[in-house]
Design brief:
- With about 425 residues, this protein is mostly helical.
- The chain has a single domain (about 15-419), classed as Up-down Bundle (Growth Hormone, Chain: A), CATH 1.20.1250.20.
- The chain has helices at about 10-15, 20-35, 40-50, 55-80, 85-100, 105-140, 145-180, 180-195, 195-200, 205, 220-230, 235-260, 265-295, 295-315, 320-350, 355-385, 385-419.
- α5 (about 85-100) runs antiparallel to α8.
- The two termini are about 20 Å apart.
- It comes from Dictyobacter alpinus.
- InterPro entries: MFS (IPR011701), MFS_DHA3_Transporter (IPR053160), MFS_trans_sf (IPR036259).
- Keywords: Membrane, Transmembrane, Transmembrane helix.
């Protein structure tokens, strides 16, 4: 891995490096963008306009198809043209897609979901790549502590984002009671406001340092990034297990809203339940750096998968209290601890020049899993109960995790024979 990020440019050594100010700007951008006024109500919004769970699943699949297709180009864009520029594009497209959502006809909805997918692709690896770079400026000359510092800052970023999610999710429920489209209008506004903090991040810090006479070579860049992942069983395994687990968690998060709605909960009540889940994630995210210092990544990731399976098992139980316990504790613990663990280990093993693209492979794998899982989940709920669909999800998660481990072992043996 290149150590260039740990050696600030000469122009920055001349004076004290304002890395705290940069971090505040970066955290401000993330906290503003995490004001997700629509996250707890968009499924209900579409359902109220006559769309079945299967059609909602197809729309979400459109999001992930667009995101999957755009992941590699957006990762190359971030590495070669600028990671800050990538986040600005993310904000602009996020505002635009929300405008299309205000007209809930199928053509506009498909456009909205496609634009949303592309916008999140530009978020992709650029966001974490910038934080990794800023981490190097926080304590230069101490490369051994890079991963530890990053895990702490990444967890802090997630916790700040979770607070914003709690505010946004709770507010979104109440805003939806005032006017159904009001949460979407507010979401478009905050997407534009989130661009302002990015302007305080200097390009010399966020963007790759290329010689001016150098021409970008996207295909060569892609090949180098792909080779880095294929020749590292660790990176390959992390990308696969992350995509599998996160797709499961995201699918459950969205459809459980519909489950609560069908049980008779009002929009404001669902918003509160989702906010409590965010509080649970906040606590487990704060615990993640401590656990990462004391447990190996393999043990911690395995424990997260087990916790996710246990959470799903509890959600199958036909008892509201037990189901809520599984969703708010075990299920949230799994996703909250797994995310910073995977992100830290991926950044530690990624080459700096291709960092954003390698991280985009992870989010791309997540999108690929969602393309398959989300519509199947919606189709299953159209003809079966939640307990049956959750049971099949448990089977898929267990088999996928086992196959990922076997592939990791196979690649390790193959590379060992080549040495």
């Amino acid at each position: 891995m290149s150590d260039s990020i740990l050696e600030p440019p000469v122009s920055l050594i001349q004076e004290p490096i304002p890395w705290r100010r940069w971090l505040i700007a970066f955290f401000s951008h993330n906290s503003i963008m995490r004001l997700m006024f629509t996250s707890a109500i968009w499924v209900i919004y579409l359902s109220s306009h006559g769309y079945s769970p299967f059609v909602i699943g197809l729309l979400e699949m459109t999001f992930h198809i667009a995101k999957f297709v755009a992941e590699v180009p957006s990762g190359i864009f971030a590495d070669l043209l600028g990671r800050r520029k990538s986040l600005i594009v993310y904000c602009l497209l996020g505002a635009l897609e929300t405008v299309f959502f205000l007209q809930p006809t199928l053509p506009f909805l498909f456009i909205s979901f496609a634009l949303s997918g592309i916008s999140y692709a530009f978020l992709g690896g650029a966001n974490e790549a910038i934080l990794w770079t800023l981490t190097g400026y926080a304590a230069p000359g101490d490369p051994q502590q890079q991963g530890i510092r990053y895990s702490k800052l990444f967890s802090w970023m997630l916790m700040v984002s979770i607070v914003s999610e709690i505010i946004g999710t709770t507010s979104g429920g109440y805003l939806g009671n005032i006017m159904q489209t009001l949460p979407f209008v507010c979401r478009a506004i905050v997407c534009l406001l989130a661009i302002i903090p990015l302007l305080f991040l200097p390009a010399a810090v966020t963007d790759p340092q290329q010689k001016q006479h150098e021409r970008p070579h996207p295909i060569l860049h892609f090949q180098k990034g792909l080779a880095a992942v294929w020749h590292s069983p660790r990176l390959l395994g992390l990308i696969l297990i992350s995509g599998l687990s996160e797709s499961c968690g995201t699918t459950i998060y969205f459809f459980v809203q519909l489950q609560f709605h069908e049980l008779g909960f009002a929009l404001s009540s669902i918003g509160i339940i989702m906010s409590v889940s965010s509080l649970s994630q906040f606590g487990f995210t704060a615990l993640a750096p401590y656990l990462m210092r004391r447990l190996s990544a393999r043990v911690l990731i395995s424990a997260c998968i087990v916790f996710q399976l246990v959470g799903l098992l509890l959600m199958i139980v036909p008892n509201a209290i037990v189901s809520l316990l599984g969703f708010l504790t075990f299920f949230q613990a799994a996703t909250a601890i797994l995310y910073p663990t995977v992100s830290t280990r991926l950044n530690e093993g990624s080459p700096e020049a291709q960092r954003a693209m390698v991280l985009s492979f992870e989010t791309g794998m997540f999108s690929l899993a969602m393309i398959i899982l989300f519509p199947l989940f919606g189709l299953g709920l159209s003809s079966a109960s939640y307990s049956i669909v959750y049971s099949w999800t448990i089977v898929a998660l267990a088999i996928g995790s086992l196959m990922t481990y076997l592939l990791f072992r196979l690649r390790t043996v193959q590379l060992g024979k080549q040495l």
